[in-house]
């Protein structure tokens, strides 16, 4: 068949360009080589570093136990790529199959993989954001700078936002013996991702570990001294807090601005793609040569009502990258869907938190094992009578079971007894997620729409 | 298929090679006959149950054990000591295991096992030197002379048993191990008496040592268990006793069999023995493949169901006894390609040999290190080793399965 010949030619001498040289980009490139791609492979990354791992940046690196430049990702195989590092991609010409670089260069492709990920959402006031002592945490450089600031022993650290990253930063500060205040506009840490019941446990963990946790509050302004160093923050309750280090941890923004005007379905919520990782254009038509993977991708998930899920999870990046790579080099009959069950982990205040499924879809939660007071429990989330997610605090060895329950759409509340069921686990509680229309800092998952043809789905040109 | 197959698995004549029976069993992933246990033999089903919170390890939850052939064949535990965490569910299991782990592994003691590497190497060298000095190169029993004494010595050092008491410790360990491996010709009453005697003496000895360590801690596991001041408090003397007994018994026979099964497998696959001789680093992947290929714990016979659960289309009623045949799951062709081939280069060897879930082998890092050191040193020092009997004579025990003797001949023994 003609297309078979084209595929063979692509594998033999085609040009594949990967934009985004982090976890998803690297794993995809490795998979392409593993599948026998012998053509030209170009890796474009805006950072000057070869791919590195981010989870340690908010954990071991902030504790000074690992250095930021020691987190290079282990290579599974040689990928024999042309590396274009330190210069971001600046535009895409879909008709001519070309990526335009910020330095004016152009790179042609036969297949393109977009894995540009996300960046830390900056403090909205640029002048305040530019003050010395104000940090975000996303890159290796961010982590190294923040670690230096913490090592200098500041009198107080203010963390704005108590999502996972903010909580991990606060935990690292306490472990280093630093005074730390966390300001969160929701009623508890982690509520966006895990709801109020679990958020209350997280709040207790903060306070027991000596964090000055202030919830239901916003930072309205940061104030610098005459030398341009941050000295204080003004809060929405009218008080002022002195802090020498401020870490802005308000979630992430998707790196899609470079695609503005390209005709690709890219916007602030990411790049929409089908379950096979093929990107949609703005007309809702799937492209055949442009693929998406990792944090920047939004794809429909059959297990969750075909909703478009955008998952900023390490494991998702790897799995989606591998699926994209496979599909890029396959005939249509061989293509596979990305059917990964969402999962993530965090470690904070000495507790290992893991989750599977989509807790934030849950309306109810049941503590099926262990006890919240002991900080060791399993919480199962229910949505319309089925199990939709689960979270464990220091109980991760049970998670495989609950993942299966989610995959099998098992009934909620779970009708069976388990080991270690306590009185608090006898019946479900409201999961207590905030109204999704009220922004919080925590969610790692964005749900929106049901199908690419959904009229409610509008693509906003990226301005910010 | 009838319950006959379980009897056949337990029957001594199957000991040298139970794998064809497991293969037959896998045709019925959930096998049940009469009032016997529900027997699970396929990889994914076993793995699922190991992570299933509706499964209990606490024998008090069993209601239907009448037909379990192992419960009749095997000796019950001691009534003297409280149950060890092996036979408990959370939260008691978790609390005791956490407290035991505090002086043993990360995060609190991340270097305990690695720091024993030099000492373990010394014990291995000493045992092989003794064979070289006193053994008959035409007939060496690797069990008696090597793999049997090694783990007991290691546990003595780990717990902190003074060197002058190690010999007594070996005698008790031998008696208790023999109780796990009943000789069908011996008088059961006599055996029970001997076992209970050894258990009492060992208990008295450990209790004395625990009291001593409580007063003058010396940094070993027993001192740390007796004086530990973690967030879970301090163990009672009875808890330390039952934990120490668990470490001794669970860490002994299994490690003996891992090393012996390992040497047997390598002697049957001399090309791998030769590779290990030239590349000692291969010991690590080799031990993993051994844990898949010839796991020292063949099956877990103690679990029970807290609810009616469905496994592979079969409903197992609440209160049923389960057997999880780990060794069969490890040979499941739906999980491992060419499962009956010993292949240390297997890329994806997530075996069930050390269990999985909350009860996964507590001593795994130590067992892996012991086996890797033992096998690489034996491979390096034994000149042209040959198996004298194949299959070698096995122990009775179908659960903790391994050769009772492993006679080999060598041309000589290389210097350390």
UniProtKB/TrEMBL annotation, chain A:
Molecular function via GO: oxidoreductase activity, acting on NAD(P)H
Region (Disordered): 409-464
Ranges of residues in domain FAD/NAD(P)-binding: 15-321
Family matches, as Pfam families: Pyr_redox_2, Reductase_C
Domain of life: Bacteria
Official protein name in the record: Ferredoxin reductase
Taxonomic lineage from the root: Bacteria, Bacillati, Actinomycetota, Actinomycetes, Kitasatosporales
Species: Streptomyces katrae
Record domain Reductase C-terminal: where: 344-413
Record's GO cellular component terms: cytoplasm
SUPFAM superfamilies: FAD/NAD(P)-binding domain, FAD/NAD-linked reductases, dimerisation (C-terminal) domain
Gene3D superfamilies recorded: 3.30.390.30, FAD/NAD(P)-binding domain
Cofactor(s), names only, from the UniProt record: FAD
Swiss-Prot/TrEMBL keywords: FAD, Flavoprotein, Oxidoreductase
InterPro entries (alphabetical): FAD-oxidoreductase/Apoptosis, FAD/NAD-bd_sf, FAD/NAD-binding_dom, FAD/NAD-linked_Rdtase_dimer_sf, Reductase_C
Comp. bias (Basic and acidic residues): 419-429
UniProtKB/TrEMBL annotation, chain B:
Region (Disordered): 54-113
GO molecular function: heme binding; iron ion binding; monooxygenase activity; oxidoreductase activity, acting on paired donors, with incorporation or reduction of molecular oxygen
InterPro entries in the record: Cyt_P450, Cyt_P450_B, Cyt_P450_sf
Domain of life, per lineage: Bacteria
Metal-binding keyword on record: yes
Keywords annotated in UniProt: Heme, Iron, Metal-binding, Monooxygenase, Oxidoreductase
CDD domains linked: CYP164-like
Protein family per UniProt: Belongs to the cytochrome P450 family.
PANTHER family given in the database record: CYTOCHROME P450 YJIB-RELATED, P450, PUTATIVE (EUROFUNG)-RELATED
Name the UniProt record assigns to this protein: Cytochrome P450
Organism field: Streptomyces katrae
